[in-house]
Amino acid sequence: MTKKPTVQEPRQHEKYERLIAATKGLQPLPTAVAHPCDETSLKGALEAAEAGMITPMLVGPKERIRAVARSADLAIGNFEIIDVPHSHAAAEKAVEIIRAGNAELLMKGSLHSDEILGAVTKRETGLRTGRRISHVFVMAVPSHAETLFITDAAVNIAPDLLAKRDIVQNAIDLYAGIGLGTPKVAILSAVETVNPDIPSTVDAAALCKMADRGQITGGELDGPLAFDNAVSPEAAHIKGIKSTVAGRAQILVVPDLEAGNMLAKNLSFLSRADAAGIVLGARVPIILTSRADNVRTRMASCAVALLLAYSQRAKQPIRA
Prior knowledge:
Number of helices: 11
Number of domains: 2
CATH class of the largest domain: Alpha Beta
Distance between the termini: 63 Å
Strand content: 15-25%
Strand order of the largest sheet: 3-2-1-4-11-10-5-6-9-7-8
CATH topology of the largest domain: Rossmann fold
Mean pLDDT: 92
Number of strands: 11
CATH architecture of the largest domain: 3-Layer(aba) Sandwich
Largest sheet: 11 strands, mixed
Oligomer: single chain
Helix content: 25-40%
């Protein structure tokens, strides 16, 4: 009996290792770390510093940061600590440091995402640009060959068509900016045909036509596509979908935050995927980590932000 060839599952961290390796040779960037007041967030910033990605400026209650460092046996003596009384003040101060030009990246510590994003999105004192702010999960799924970008699963709750236009463009700019080339972008819905009773299918069709008209640039778009048709060539073939994107998508654009959050967490918990997080559309990349993130995921988030920041240095600020 002929023995079937062994199918090797991709190494779980292989995709992130490539991203981290791409930062070698780049100078670390000054990074405002907002409220690193637990072991996970403080250790994540220090490990990224040790890897030569960032030079952290620790923004938060000084004595609390020092106490965490002592408890976890972490050396923070070489890094500046900007003393503020609480997490809300840390978010405001970190944004102020960015606005003053003293840091090029912003990193979330142990505060709630709403606190840091609230400071970022303030009209007069935040980090807004002409582009809608949005979030991307850069996901390494062990059983899938491609790195998957899922957007937006953390910032925009129920985006309208123009918000989705910025969400798509932000993700394309990220994919290209970190050196991955021209992405294939699937606009997801429940089905692959346009149905007025399912508004996300109409938005998907409109986004594809916007790309045809140059309102979205730098990527190949198709939609609406159901999830299976977006990532499985076999599923796309069975449905008779003729497209360069179907079955090969690298960016998955979800209809709303609920769908994106469920998709990302399903991949994380059922497929053992890692999910690095970054917020785009602000003056600087924002490293948005979770308390549940492992070290490799935090490092990947920093690597993506660093690569993007360097790619943006030679460009004009993003405008709508």
